């Protein structure tokens, strides 16, 4: 079974600064997808970014980008120009037929 | 697009009663839906995969007789918590993906907060 590990339970960053959230996973599969979801206090799950494993190019969505290292099974999320609205739980997820989540990282953006 | 509606958003029930939670895909058909459970300050744990027209697939440790899943149509899956106990109190979230395969991200309902007294 696939496992997803987020080793940073909590992180904080100053507004306008850059922060990187770590994620590693374990799988024997070659074809899969990776996602980052954001869960604000409302508990709504919001898709941040996704990465196809067969693509070497790292995905980018505005201020959000990933560093995907397939051989190392690493999938970190970089948030640039952090905003107060970025404060939330962030979950890394591995997907093939279903989707499995890491334990999450609570990010606080400080003014 | 790709909206998933979950109802109710919160429910309080007494021990021993049953509670039904509905999950609907409003603008797409979903042959597969997923049910997750989330304890406070914890991650989403996959409970079961709901398959339209067939039996659900439960994760190890999830009691299928306690958490009944019915996926009777391509847009509706229900989770019934039977004979609820206080330890069943949790946040339940359903999700679905439009289209086939893993390329589509999951879209999530807003969740149901269940409190068993």
Distance from first to last alpha carbon of chain A: 41 Å
Overall pLDDT level of chain B: 92
Biggest β-sheet description of chain B: 7 strands, mixed
- Sheet bearing the most strands of chain A, described? 6 strands, mixed
Computed over alpha carbons, the radius of gyration of chain B is 13 Å
The total count of helices of chain A amounts to: 0
Order of helices and strands of chain B: EEEEEEEEEEE
Q: Give the total of beta strands of chain A.
A: 12
Helix content of chain B: under 10%
Describe the fold and architecture.
The complex is a heterodimer of chains A (111) and B (117). Chain A is mainly beta. Chain A is built from no helices and twelve strands. Chain A has strands at 3-5, 10-14, 19-21, 24-26, 33-39, 46-52, 60-61, 64-69, 74-79, 88-95, 99-101, 105-110. In chain A, a hairpin with a 2-residue loop joins strand 7 and strand 8. With 117 residues, chain B is mostly beta strands. Chain B is 0% helix and 50% strand. Chain B has no helices and eleven strands. Chain B has strands at residues 4-7, 10-13, 19-25, 32-38, 44-51, 57-58, 67-73, 76-81, 90-96, 107-108, 112-116. In chain B, strands 2, 4, 5, 6, 9, 10 and 11 form a seven-stranded mixed beta sheet that branches. In chain B, strands 1-3-8-7 form a four-stranded antiparallel beta sheet, with no helix packed on it. Chain A binds chain B through residues 32-33, 35, 42-45, 47, 50, 52, 91, 95-104, and chain B through 34, 38, 42-46, 49, 91, 93, 95, 102-103, 105-108, 110-111.
